[in-house]
Each structure stands twice: as structure tokens, then as C-alpha cells.
């Protein structure tokens, strides 16, 4: 556990504000610290010669705020120097990323395609806002074909619409403008709502929210 501040919300009448300086610290420290803590625990509990390493698993799954952090987090599993040195030296960071490229391609990338994992050992990392991150391993038993087919992750990602960053900024500004609004009908198009998903239709004078289900294609 780390005592960190990622978002600040002085009053409930204002939308939360990210603290960039404090918020970025756990994003870098957690993916680096947690796997190494797991490795030390494996050694202390008789985890075999050498304990846990990234080669102990078939696939590596990262939950992180953004994709680049997964790359950096995986690279840190190859760290042999102090954490402080590896986090502050960009040349070392690049060296670890290059060192882990083959492993990333073989163990992390396939996770996005939901491969056949029956009988495989997988490590899972949960970001936990950096302050309560966790790392553990599982071994999959049974057939996962139905789950993989229903998830259809690769096709769903390919079908997503890519928009300019400014569209995201505009959406955040609109959200901040209408924070705690009542007697409110959201603005904007609903064409991009996933079929079958629920979205906010209106908020009445008593702050009661009405949701509508998007048509299923």
C-alpha cells in the first residue's frame, strides 16, 4: 500500500481534478514494485530454485491506465538495479523495454486477442490506482472457447471509432460544465453508444436519473 493522491475533490460541488505530479508517481512505481514483491514472496515461501520470474508464466495480463504503462510495467520485470535508478533514468527504461520486447510480443500481446488459455499459467496485474495494486497468478482449467468467442475482443476493438484528442477534451469540458446539474438533458449524439448499452437520457429537478437502452443492431 502507498499513501498517494491521484485525484483531489475539495467539495462535492466540483468535478474531481487530477493532480498530475502526485498522480503520475503511483502509475510508475506500482507496475515496478508489485511483481518484484511477488517474486520475493515466492522465494521466501519456497517457490523453487530462483523463485518466480516472468518466464514462470505463459501469458502476462496488465490492467493499467494506458497502454504505454503496460509496456513500461512489463519492462520493469527485467529490472536488476534499484527501483529509484530504473524509474529516473530514461536510458535504462529504454534498455529494459528493448530487453523485454520478445517477451512482450510472446506473453503480453496475445492477451488482447484472448488466445486459447486452457491449462496455461497467467499472471495478472491490477493497477488499483497505484496505492493498492495487486499481482497474482492463475492456472486456467477447462475450455475457454465460448468465452473467447462471445468476448470477440479483437473485432470489437477494430470496430471502434478513432477520434481526435480534442473531442475527448471537449467531452471532459462538457462534463465539468454540467457537474451536479438538474433538470438536464445531455447534449451530443448517441450514435456511438454501443448497441444494447444504457446511457443517461435525463436528470429531473430532484436529481433522479433516467437511463435508456441503445437499440440492438
From TrEMBL:
Residue ranges annotated as coiled coil are: none
The organism sits in which domain of life?
Eukaryota
Domain called Hydroxymethylglutaryl-coenzyme A synthase C-terminal: residue spans: 116-212
Q: Which Pfam families match?
A: HMG_CoA_synt_C (PF08540)
Keyword annotations from UniProtKB, A to Z: Transferase
Please tell me whether the keyword Transferase is annotated for this protein: yes
Annotated TM spans: none
InterPro entries linked to this entry = HMG_CoA_synt_C_dom, Thiolase-like
A Gene Ontology annotation in the biological process aspect, one of them, is: ergosterol biosynthetic process
Q: What is this protein called?
A: Thiolase-like protein
Question: What are the leading ranks of the lineage?
Answer: Eukaryota, Fungi, Dikarya, Basidiomycota, Agaricomycotina
Amino acid at each position: 500500500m502507498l499513501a498517494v493522491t491521484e485525484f483531489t475533490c475539495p467539495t462535492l460541488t466540483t468535478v474531481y481534478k487530477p493532480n498530475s505530479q502526485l498522480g503520475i508517481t503511483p502509475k510508475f512505481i506500482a507496475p515496478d514494485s508489485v511483481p518484484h514483491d511477488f517474486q520475493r514472496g515466492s522465494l521466501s515461501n519456497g517457490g523453487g530454485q530462483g523463485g518466480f520470474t516472468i518466464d514462470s508464466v505463459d501469458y502476462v495480463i496488465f490492467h493499467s491506465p494506458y497502454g504505454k504503462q503496460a509496456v513500461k510495467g512489463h519492462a520493469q520485470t527485467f529490472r536488476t538495479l534499484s527501483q529509484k535508478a530504473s524509474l529516473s533514468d530514461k536510458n535504462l527504461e529504454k534498455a529494459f523495454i528493448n530487453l523485454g520486447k520478445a517477451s512482450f510480443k510472446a506473453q503480453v500481446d496475445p492477451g488482447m486477442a484472448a488466445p486459447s488459455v486452457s491449462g496455461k499459467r497467467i499472471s495478472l496485474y491490477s493497477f488499483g490506482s497505484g496505492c493498492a495494486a495487486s499481482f497474482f497468478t492463475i492456472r486456467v482449467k477447462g475450455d475457454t472457447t465460448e468465452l473467447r468467442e462471445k468476448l470477440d475482443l479483437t473485432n470489437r476493438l477494430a470496430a471502434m471509432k478513432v477520434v481526435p484528442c480534442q473531442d475527448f477534451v471537449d467531452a471532459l469540458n462538457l462534463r465539468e460544465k454540467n457537474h451536479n446539474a438538474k433538470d438536464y438533458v445531455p447534449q451530443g449524439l448517441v450514435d456511438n453508444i454501443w448497441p444494447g448499452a444504457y446511457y443517461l437520457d435525463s436528470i429531473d429537478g430532484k436529481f433522479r436519473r433516467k437511463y435508456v437502452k441503445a437499440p440492438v443492431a
